[in-house]
């Protein structure tokens, strides 16, 4: 079977997604249309001859989801005729800050930044703003005040993590026992959260449980693990949880698929069976997780649309290069992935 990239696979939807992201997002309550974008002569010239340079900073290459995102982004920017350099922040803010400074010395036309620490976004803006270089923040949403502080030169492209959290909860509510396998009237769960500073981790944790409570369910959290989006760490923590709490655990919530894949290894090693005596959900719709959903090894996952987000980020960069108006926020929808529709997301 011919292997195709996720980008090629979802290209058709990306074209639609890009158009939607660039228009529908304007309707978002939290989006503020940029009133104007100062168009520099240099930027316009770059757009005309297609020779703009884009510096991309990724928080960490060793992140499954951001690896997909980065490949998509590189492809779209190159398709636009831009020279692209992508740097690995190695999960270290100092390293990333140095990379940003190097990009500024090189005089890149636009920066696309996936911050290591969201709390450093203001410092990043303060470092970049004297040069007037526009910034497209991606994946890790900074405070609105940060975007406001560099108005017309700075935007955020992302997905509303509250939606993904709600979908995780709904995936559990859609199971035969609605998450209450032992029928004691309480959904007892553990949570693999992600990283503490990340709004995706915070909202997914909050909104998955809110969905259960809004449906009138009682919940009992046995333990919240951080696991930093990492498969091996989650595997170890879930193994420990399963040996400590045993059958009490009815649901394992994982805020990304890497952690869910780790959790699944431990669930299987403990002799438990997803869909029968435990439920497991993730987020991202990584190829392996989608296959597990199809095979019944995961209850469900949520598509984190890397193609739609990369397309929107590349489009935003292009608007900056061309000196066109850029909105403050571009939102891309999540999609719930269950056994019923998972085949649409298999590559
Ligand atoms: C999330 C994604 C995680 C991880 C994280 C990095 O949106 O679901 O898998 O990539 O971003 O910030």
- Which molecules other than protein and nucleic acid are bound? beta-D-galactopyranose
Helix percent reads 40-55%
Low confidence ranges: 1-5, 9-49
Strand order of the largest sheet: 2-1-3-4-5-11
Beta-sheet strand percentage?
Answer: 15-25%
Mean pLDDT: 89
Number of strands: 12
Provide the gyration radius in Å.
21 Å
Helix-strand string: HHHEHEHEHEHEHEHEHEHEHEHEE
Please give the alpha-carbon distance between the first and last residues.
10 Å
Number of helices: 13
- The dominant shape is elongated
**Main β-sheet: number of strands, strand sense, barrel status?**
6 strands, parallel
Global structural class: alpha/beta
Protein name: LacI family transcriptional regulator
Organism: Faecalibacterium langellae
Task: Give an account of the 3D structure.
This protein has 347 residues and is α/β, with parallel strands linked by helices. The chain is 44% helix and 17% strand. The chain contains 13 helices and twelve strands. The strands form three sheets. The chain has a six-stranded parallel beta sheet, with helices on both faces. Strands 7-6-8-9 form a four-stranded parallel beta sheet, sandwiched between helices. Strands 10-12 form a two-stranded antiparallel sheet. Strand 6, helix 9 (199-214) and strand 7 (218-227) form a beta-alpha-beta unit. The longest helix is centred in the C-terminal third of the chain and has 17 residues, at 306-322. It is elongated. The termini are close together. The relative contact order is 0.17. Mean pLDDT is 89; it is low at 1-5 and 9-49. It binds beta-D-galactopyranose. Beta-D-galactopyranose (GAL) is lined by residues 63, 65-66, 139-140, 198, 200, 229, 256, 258, 283-284, 304.
